[in-house]
TrEMBL record:
It comes from Saccharothrix mutabilis subsp. mutabilis. Residues 49-193 form the DUF305 domain. This is DUF305 domain-containing protein. Pfam families: DUF305. It comes from the Bacteria.
Length: 196
């Protein structure tokens, strides 16, 4: 029993630190905890599942690049905490998605064929130019520019998740899409509140 409590305590402490010990006065949306998917993993998949994972991996990596910018910039504590929680969550999701693609013997990326993206609603990535413009933003304007770019980025994540929810067949991939849809929608609402 002691060993179980020690393990649980070790798992909960990082979550409590990242989420500010709950929502409290700050109104923070806690980061999702636990495994990316609790459904039994299968190797049943279709082209929508593959495209969703490939698009989401690329999208997540750009998101991680964006949220890391909040570490050393002048932004309020709540924004830093949210950015750190998003980074942890998306790193975990990328690990899971890459594992599933490997298990299915599928490439990490669909390549540069624009038609592949067009069939799934277009390219939903945040451009390197948009991220570079954020990096160049002055201290007085950074937080607002950061929130606006991250809101747009997470909105694109919601759009990518919709394709999987509607056309995918793989249970763990669909569960991840549901989780992305709901968590990013919550983050968008939270960040819109910061802009008021």
């Amino acid at each position: 029993m002691r060993r179980l409590m020690a393990v649980l305590g070790g798992l909960l402490l990082p979550v409590l630190l990242l989420t500010g010990c709950g929502s409290g006065e700050s109104g923070l949306v806690p980061a999702p905890t636990g495994p990316v998917s609790t459904v039994a993993e299968t190797n049943e998949f279709n082209p929508v599942d593959v495209m969703f994972l490939q698009m989401a991996v690329s999208h997540h990596k750009a998101g991680i690049e964006i949220v890391k910018l909040a570490r050393d910039k002048s932004v309020r504590t709540d924004v830093k905490t949210l950015a750190a929680a998003i980074e942890v969550t998306q790193l975990s999701e990328v690990d899971s998605m890459l594992k599933w693609l490997r298990d299915w013997n599928q490439p990490e990326s669909p390549g540069s064929d624009a038609q592949l993206h067009a069939n799934h609603g277009g390219d939903h990535s945040t451009s390197p130019e948009a991220i570079a413009a954020l990096v160049a933003t002055g201290p007085g304007e950074f937080e607002k520019a950061f929130l606006n770019l991250l809101i747009a980025h997470q909105h694109n994540a919601v759009e990518i998740a919709k394709f999987e929810r509607e056309g995918g067949v793989n249970p763990q991939s669909k569960a991840l899409a549901d989780r992305i849809f709901h968590s990013r929608t919550g983050q968008i609402s939270q960040m819109l509140g910061y802009l008021d």
